[in-house]
Write a structure and sequence with these properties.
This protein is an all-alpha fold and 403 residues long. Helices cover 69% and strands 0% of the residues. The radius of gyration is 23 Å and the shape is globular.
């Protein structure tokens, strides 16, 4: 009963933190952008919406003509006092545009891959999440979002040539606003970690430094994939440090998650040019190896429950004490199914579209991998809660690109 209650609190808390952080970041900037959108900006390049992204007022259907936002006619007649109803609607449309732009900038679907880091770390070190685990989740969400905003700010010139539809080169988000958001989110992430205690801050500080180093200096160097892998592994260790005050028991799980991230990041380096079969082939091999470790390796209960797992009746093995690995095996196979197929397609045809699908598949596979690692530590209910984040990520991925 206690486990079920804890799991329910975990799931609700995770969803609440995810929604709160995303809303807090986008709302403040959206309000300012909406006010700007309601005023005419003659001659400004970013006053024209890219083709297909303008919505008809009240219909939700895209306008295929690519006309400027200013061409949307006011709806209704002027209200008493001289305030036209159309201005209200233009402001509402501008607010939706700004909200979508920030959702693209922060990679909203990818945010659902973040809470599982802390929950897997908590499972590996303490067995179940605590109230402080939610501070780790909030810190991770802030630092991850900061990295997304900083990444686009640093790559704005490159994106102008290769991805002109992105929020910064298209003018939907100002570079100064993206950099400000990255700084603010980094500060918020470190503040939440400090609130959780010194062990958490000890992990969060180098994690934040790694994120900034990757975006500003290491991304286009041979050390880039390793830096990204280190950041993801450290994020899992942040959950362990926040929950249990130590990270040693979570090192194996962090190594597996870091290996997966290394493979995905290596493939992503060619997602706009394509032409490489070696990277997706290596990622496919890494996925196969990780799946074998997840499905065939023994469960590793956290240190706090190891004595209970090994003190059962004579002749009962530790594996029997922790229960069969059916859930862990199922989640491991789900991880393989999510990542392997797009990798294989990119190996057969390394075109940019299929390479981008391989990257998206690798990112989405992070959630079942986190869930399998959590189940591997014996926290089955928490593993199911992590798995529940996958359909939410898929739902938003239909509207906003994950890469």
């Amino acid at each position: 009963m206690t486990k079920a209650l804890t799991a329910a609190v975990t799931m609700v808390g995770t969803a609440a933190v995810t929604a709160a952080v995303t809303t807090a970041v986008t709302t403040a900037v959206t309000r300012r952008a909406a006010n700007e959108a309601s005023r005419p900006h003659p001659g400004r390049a970013d006053s024209v919406e890219p083709v297909g992204s303008v919505e008809l007022v009240g219909s939700g259907e895209p306008v295929g003509s690519g006309e400027p936002v200013g061409s949307v006619e006011p709806v209704g007649s002027p209200e008493p006092g001289g305030s036209p109803t159309g201005a209200v609607h233009r402001k509402r449309v501008g607010g939706r545009r700004a909200g979508r732009a920030w959702a693209e900038l922060l990679r909203l679907p990818a945010l659902f891959t973040v809470p599982g880091d802390a929950l897997a770390g908590a499972a590996a070190s303490a067995g179940r999440p605590t109230s402080r685990t939610f501070l780790a989740i909030g810190s991770s969400l802030c630092l991850y979002s900061a990295g997304m905003a900083l990444n686009d700010w640093a790559d704005r010139a490159e994106d102008a040539a290769e991805r002109p539809h992105r929020p910064l080169p298209s003018g939907r988000v100002r570079p100064a606003a993206a950099l400000t958001a990255a700084c603010a989110l980094t500060g918020a992430g470190l503040a939440l970690a400090a609130r959780a205690g010194r062990p958490a801050l000890t992990v969060a500080a180098p994690l934040a430094a790694t994120v900034w180093a990757y975006d500003l200096a290491l991304k286009h160097t041979p050390a880039g994939p390793a830096a990204m892998a280190a950041a993801r592994a450290a994020d899992l260790l942040l959950g362990a440090a926040t929950t249990a005050g130590r990270t040693r028991d979570a090192l194996p799980s962090a190594a597996l998650l870091g290996t997966h991230t290394l493979a995905v990041t290596t493939v992503s380096r060619r997602e706009t040019q394509g032409g490489s079969t070696l990277a997706p082939l290596a990622a496919l091999a890494a996925t196969t190896a990780l799946t074998g470790l997840l499905t065939r390796g023994p469960s590793r209960p956290p240190a706090g429950r190891r004595n209970a797992a090994t003190s059962g009746p004579p002749g009962r093995s530790p594996q029997a004490a922790t229960g069969p690995g059916t859930l862990r095996t199922a989640l491991g196979l789900l991880y393989a199914a999510t990542a392997a197929r797009p990798y294989a397609h990119a190996v057969l045809n390394p075109s940019p579209p299929l390479t981008q699908r391989a990257v998206s598949g690798g990112i989405r596979a992070t959630i079942p991998l986190q869930a399998a690692l959590t189940a591997r530590s014996g926290a089955r209910i928490t593993a199911l809660c992590v798995t529940a984040l996958a359909p939410l990520g898929r739902r938003y991925a239909r509207k906003v690109s994950v890469t």
